[in-house]
Input
Amino acid sequence: MLGEREARVREVTLLEIHGVPYADLTVESDDGVVASGRLGRESIPVDLVVGEQVLVQAAMNVMLAVRRP
Output
């Protein structure tokens, strides 16, 4: 249930809620599966851009963090 998979960033939206920074992120894996989630900005690379290839760390199909390969 805990794992890591390759994906491409489809959308990144930076936002703040009550002064706390977050990122709404949508990624698509090589097999066409699309996943979305809201992560704390400490869980993604600072300069993440659309189209970038990343490794998505997930538990029970919930994104926990994103990093560069």
